[in-house]
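Z., the sequence and structure:
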Amino acid sequence: MTDRLELDGQRLTLADLVHVARCMPVPGGRAAADLGLTAQSRAEVERSRAWVVSVLHGERAIYGVNTGFGSLARVRIDPDQTSQLSRNLIRSHAAGVGPDAPDEVVRATMLLRANALARGASGCTLALVETLLAMLTAGVTPRVPSLGSCGSSGDLAPLSHIGLVVFGEGGHARFGGVKLSGPEAMQRAGIPTLVPAAKEGLAMTNGAQMTTAIAALALFDGERLVADAEVAAAMSIEALRGVTRAFHPGVHALRPYPGAIRTAARLLELLAGSTLTNSIPDKIQDAYSLRCTPVILGAVRDQLRFAREVVDIEINSVTDNPVILMDEPGELNRAFSAGLFHGEPVGMACESARIAIAELASLSERRLFRLTTGSLSARLPPALASAGGGEDGLGMLFPQTTAASLVSENKAIGWPSTLDSIPTCEDQEDHVAMSTTAAWRFRETVENSRRVVAIELLSAARALRYRLADDPTLVLGAGSAAMMPRLAVILDAGLTPGEEIERCTERILQA
């Protein structure tokens, strides 16, 4: 992304979001990004705000502007009490519990909320959007508990905890690596807190931005993980002296799923030049975990492509209730109450993406099992252990156990959260998304699966070392040749297996 990022509610990219979320500014140093609004966005925000102000003293009931919230929508509020109404909403909904959400998730949530407001369909003040952007630029990150959101009406509790800091109502925030009270963090950063105006309680809290933040970051990592899993697969196929005819483009043209075609082609690229593949006379085909890799990882690619389509829409969507439509002809009441805050679209995308990533890990573990099982590995040492129990002890026997545990954990959290719904708000909110839970589970599955792929990479590298030791004239495929020196730095560092796995996860899979 460029140094200057101007929001308009329509052109934010996933790459922009990840950059802002993960590049924490250093107090006194250069900001991670110069954030602002386009001139058109500023005009649209002020335009919808002017309409909200114009109807405050009118007879028409406008939800959340001069009425109560949720099941109290029919209760009229005196115009002089609308600021207090917004303040009460923020304070009452700040009911999150549990461990703090990671800073990157909170920062992504704040950027997404600012981008939704930047569209100019929320009726908030320009100051609210600018304050969120100023906090991101300065590095003021509110403490947001990770539990307590059903994803409808959006992520009310998480966004309210951000609102506590924005509106000077308390809360806590991190600034300069130190946890402070919300007001002190804002004061140190030189950012004035706001007095919430009419409708700004809703503008701050209505929307599934935390769900989307978690999902977007996990999706970004998941997309990269597919590429890493293809490298691991190629290395394992090579170490197991696999057959490459299953990856022929003519084969996959007969069942033309885009993901499978792409994965098959990439496997052939990674295996190009190898003298280990196709080296067992009369071997016609491999086990499913090798032969079906393009079909399975291709399906993963296709599911993540669907999730990307959903996330790309959501990060540039308005999710308020009501929304303010300033250009609808013949409408005196510009406020439309609807359900754009409902997290179901993102929640469902998280479910399919999570299942896909879990299958990626399951497939990786099956190849790993073959590498470490003497009777299945084309005569590699059992467990990839040195003869006589050398420095590597039991080889990769227990890392395979770790992988099995992680794959099982993915299965344990596999129940679709979006199938569940418990009514809230006196049955006004009688069907909720549970999308935030779906997003957290997607994130956890990606983290588990990254470690499984790391274990496969380490095991395949060890296996290829045995092959080369037996026959130094062997030529590795293009992918293995490029990856082996990077993995050697880890394998030769004298680390415990757990340390090897974590270092590979951090340094190889995030490179």
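The chain has a mean pLDDT of 93. Residues 214-419+437-508 form a domain with the Fumarase C; Chain A, domain 2 fold (CATH 1.20.200.10).

Let me know what you think.
H.
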